Amino acid sequence: MTPVARSAGKTRGPRRWWVTAGVLSVVAAGCITVGLSDHRHPLPGPVAAPHTLTTATVPPVAVVPVVARSTPVSLRVPAIALSVPLSTLGLNPDGTVQVPTNDIEPGWFRLGPSPGQIGSAVILGHVDSYQGPGVFFQLHALLAGDQVQVSLADGAVANFVVTAVAVYAKAQFPAQQVYASNGSSALQLVTCGGSFDTQTGHYLSNLVVYTSFVSATPATAPAAVTAPVTAGTPVRI
Question: Which residue has the higher pLDDT, 96 or 221?
């Protein structure tokens, strides 16, 4: 993945967007780099077998999300010094998931839940291009327990904790596991990984960071500012 002006779009509901997961192997198909057009090789992404990379596990936190649907506007991952704005992504005309057009800005899949809602929110980003590392180049370095924070347009912040990092061959990409709801609130970060095929210009695998919701910082309304009124000054209401 090489796979914000934001418009939230209408919620399609779990039925619509997880059914779409059946064709979401596009996440793999979307890992196309532009390097070969210039006869250059993109920087290598993380190489690992298609299994969970982290051995530590974080028990699910029994927290009922209270985050209202709102467009995510920025992503922060302190462990890898990542703090970036977010774009929004939908579907291509053929029903596959769009991937970001910008290597340094990831995108939220807007047909799923927004971060902090019940269900699996998904953010996709590029690992690199022929120009250098992409926004998700360091995702492979995350460990169970690392923090992920998403700021929403309404001012709320949804806080997540990494539970696992996994790499899958494209043919085995678990679309339903990544996109479908399991009854709790989760956020998945998706990029490319594994070996790079110079003949096709594609990575052979996808890397997924799985996280679970832990808390939310609620949106705060700005304090009202009252202008002083002096005698004889007309007041406009």
Answer: 96
Could you tell me the pTM of the whole model?
0.72
List domains and CATH numbers for the chain.
13-217 (2.40.260.10)
3-state SS of the chain is: CCCCCCCCCCCCHHHHHHHHHHHCCHHHHCCECCHHHHCCCCCCCCCCCCCECCCCCCCCCCCCCCCCCCCEEEEEEHHHCEEEECEEECECCCCCECCCCCCCCCEEECCCCCCCCCEEEEEECCCEECCEECCCCCHHHCCCCCEEEEEECCCCEEEEEEEEEEEEEHHHCCHHHHHCCCCCEEEEEEEEEEEEECCCCEEEEEEEEEEEEEEEECCCCCCCCCCCCCCCCCCCC
Q: Per residue in 170-202, pLDDT tens?
A: 889 999 999 998 889 999 999 998 888 888 778
